[in-house]
């Protein structure tokens, strides 16, 4: 970071590309600006702002370090680095290890630990200032036998306003002790009075001792895995209990989300929780009126929720009526009707999910307060078109679409040699469609009529339809042009992915596939490892497909065959040596998706049939930092027709798709800035593409 003396301008390249100017407060507009680092409203007398875009910083946030090396709350690794939020998880943010609030903008994270240890910018910098730079604090230990270091924070301000003491569960006010790693937070009184040996009703045979453990453990009382550093353990029986599960529990539990009053019951025998249908031990709560026995955590289950996987409100049920039982619509295992689950509130809808499945990720559901009832305001709305003319059947024959300046006319005939693509989904045009009589613009009728705001089962917040010259889809990971649904964070869904339901029957498999966020391994379609958010899998066998393969067109045209090539999948029973691509003449994996013509006996790799970037519009404009120079007005060219100019990067002739500079490249030949498709397999171009987009 650098500052221009006398001009009150700073240059902070890791926070923003443009210079930031110190601006004095000027009315309501400046007061309502959000800081792009901490996410809070800027109410100070001055702010650093970008004159080119909507980017503002508190004066103190403009000077935060890019890295804190080392950070005193995470000494096991070299340090913490500043990252933009939501760069990895498409369906949720990260929780700060100290204040437990979601890091909405920037956050500090450990390179080795990834999402397991994050600090929001406020907690990261303030704790570093308090105990790192000033070096006034020393590690303290509970006693000589329990060498878990704690850091004493004399004044933590508001960083821990959402956290509670790990022993008494009361809010943290004033000085506190924080364990290395931020897992345990204690009042000074609780820290000094924390017993090193205790007895517990769940384990009467032996005493439990305070124990430090670096790895995860399983609490026998609440039946949860955890990574807290402190626990109580019976060394003889290897019986572990959370720190939070040791203090005496309330004899009665009654939450505002349910209608039962539960009484505490200690028992050694296992039981099946009537609220969630999973096994519990040692501690349970029972409703003597209704004869229900539930986990401690299930006494506070929300009565009504809104989940991403379903459009209507879901209601918790302790048992299902006849005809309501079915498969869980998340894991697709059977939901037992005698145990608790969540079901649709609408009469006649048999949508059911396991409690553990639907509540596993708190970014995929929200609690419906009783006073709000079943009202849901974020329904699909806002049409993408304005109807101008209709025929006698009431069908719109002329419309105005938000993504085009001219009126569009309804068409139902395609010329035999017409290979145009829809400017929404980028698939070949098919009837019925809308077209512009004044320019080359086409939209499928279904693409034109899509709502501008809608729900999608992949995430809870609504998504908004927007047009992009080019973008990388968050689901299929392809560069595409056309219309995108924009979601929370960095989520961008192309129309092909946005149209895929969470259960689908694929032509290449005999069973129904369902989307599983936990699915790991390789895709049976392309052989690539599944991305971090899962894939579509079959519960009957080990078959799975990622978004890129599940959205492949069922039929494509190619110059190698006069017929349309159909998407196919071999079972691999024949000799694999006979499988070869009729375009590139290389071996074709018998266990991967490919395109074939049964009439002509042709078979082609999917990448050979489609090309590397089949959904980019010819002429799409790009910007590229090439060898340290910013190049603008680069246009995607799907096919080089005027000779074979040489690539300025690899020096080989460009025969297929390229990026072409309108003004030429200072280092390049013929104005060509490198292959995109044909030589994508080379290591150099893989690196270029990664830095490129």
UniProtKB/TrEMBL annotation:
Residue ranges occupied by any Phorbol-ester/DAG-type domain in the UniProt entry: 259-306
Taxonomic source organism: Hibiscus syriacus
Q: Does the keyword Repeat apply?
A: yes
Q: Which SMART domains match?
A: PHD (SM00249)
UniProt-listed InterPro entries:
C1-like_sf, DC1, PKC_DAG/PE, Vacuole_Formation_Reg, Znf_PHD
The UniProt entry, under PROSITE patterns, shows:
ZF_DAG_PE_2
Lineage of source species = Eukaryota, Viridiplantae, Streptophyta, Embryophyta, Tracheophyta
Keywords on record? Metal-binding, Repeat, Zinc, Zinc-finger
Protein name listed in UniProt? Phorbol-ester/DAG-type domain-containing protein
Listed GO MF terms = zinc ion binding
């Amino acid at each position: 970071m650098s500052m221009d003396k006398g001009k009150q301008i700073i240059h902070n390249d890791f926070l923003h590309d443009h210079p930031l100017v110190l601006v004095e407060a000027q009315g309501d507009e400046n007061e309502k600006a959000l800081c792009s680092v901490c996410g809070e409203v800027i109410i100070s007398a001055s702010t650093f702002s970008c004159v080119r875009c909507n980017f503002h910083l508190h004066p103190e946030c403009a000077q935060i370090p890019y890295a804190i090396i080392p950070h005193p709350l995470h000494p096991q690794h070299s340090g913490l680095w500043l990252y933009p939020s939501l760069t990895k998880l498409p369906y949720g943010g990260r929780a700060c290890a100290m204040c437990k609030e979601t890091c909405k903008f920037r956050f500090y994270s450990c390179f080795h630990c990834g999402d397991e240890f994050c600090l929001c910018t406020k907690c990261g910098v303030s704790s570093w200032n308090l105990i790192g730079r000033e070096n006034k604090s020393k590690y303290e230990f509970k006693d000589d036998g329990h060498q878990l270091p704690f850091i004493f924070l004399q004044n933590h301000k508001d960083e821990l306003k959402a956290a509670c003491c790990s022993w008494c569960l009361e809010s943290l006010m004033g000085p506190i002790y924080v364990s290395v790693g931020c897992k345990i937070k204690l009042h000074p009184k609780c820290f000094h009075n924390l017993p090193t040996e205790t007895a517990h009703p769940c384990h009467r045979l032996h005493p439990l001792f305070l124990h430090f453990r670096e790895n995860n453990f399983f609490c026998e009382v609440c039946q949860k895995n955890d990574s807290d550093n402190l626990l109580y353990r019976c060394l003889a029986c290897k019986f572990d209990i959370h720190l939070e599960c040791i203090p005496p529990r309330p004899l009665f539990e009654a939450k505002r989300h349910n209608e039962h009053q539960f009484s505490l019951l200690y028992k050694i025998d296992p039981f099946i929780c009537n609220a969630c249908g999973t096994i519990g031990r040692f501690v349970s709560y029972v409703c003597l009126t209704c004869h229900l026995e539930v986990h401690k955590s299930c006494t506070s289950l929300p009565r009504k929720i809104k989940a991403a996987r379903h459009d209507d409100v879901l209601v918790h049920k302790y048992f299902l009526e006849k005809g309501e039982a079915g498969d869980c619509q998340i894991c697709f295992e059977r939901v037992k009707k005698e145990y608790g689950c969540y079901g649709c509130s609408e009469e006649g809808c048999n949508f059911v999910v396991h409690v553990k499945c639907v509540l596993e990720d708190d970014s995929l559901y929200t609690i419906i307060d009783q006073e709000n009832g079943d009202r849901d305001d974020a329904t699909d709305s806002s049409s993408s078109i304005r109807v101008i003319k209709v025929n006698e059947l009431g069908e719109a024959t002329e419309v105005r679409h938000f993504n085009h300046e001219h009126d569009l006319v309804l068409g139902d005939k395609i010329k035999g040699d017409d290979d145009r693509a829809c400017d929404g989904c980028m698939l070949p045009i098919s009837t019925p469609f809308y077209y512009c009589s004044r320019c080359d613009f086409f939209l499928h009728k279904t693409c034109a009529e899509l709502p501008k705001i809608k729900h999608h089962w992949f995430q809870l917040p609504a998504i908004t339809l927007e047009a992009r010259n080019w973008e990388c889809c968050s689901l299929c990971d392809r560069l595409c042009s056309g219309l995108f649904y924009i979601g929370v964070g960095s989520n961008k869904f192309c129309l092909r992915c946005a149209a895929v339901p969470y259960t689908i029957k694929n032509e290449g498999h005999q069973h129904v596939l369902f989307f599983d966020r936990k699915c790991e391994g390789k895709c049976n379609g392309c052989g690539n490892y599944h991305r971090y958010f899962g894939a579509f899998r079959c519960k009957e066998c080990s078959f799975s497909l990622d978004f890129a393969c599940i959205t492949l067109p069922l039929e494509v045209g190619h110059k190698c065959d006069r017929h349309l090539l159909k998407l196919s999948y071999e079972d691999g029973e024949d000799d694999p040596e006979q499988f070869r691509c009729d375009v590139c003449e290389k071996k074709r994996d018998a266990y991967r998706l490919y395109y074939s013509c049964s009439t002509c006996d042709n078979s082609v790799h999917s990448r050979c049939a489609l090309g590397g970037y089949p959904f980019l519009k010819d002429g799409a404009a790009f910007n590229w930092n090439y060898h340290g120079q910013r190049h603008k007005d680069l246009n995607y060219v799907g096919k080089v027709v005027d000779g074979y100019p040489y690539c300025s990067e690899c020096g080989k002739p460009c025969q297929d798709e390229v990026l072409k500079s309108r003004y030429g490249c200072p280092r390049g030949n013929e104005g060509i800035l490198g292959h995109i498709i044909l030589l994508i397999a080379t290591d150099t171009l893989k690196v270029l593409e990664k830095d490129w987009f």
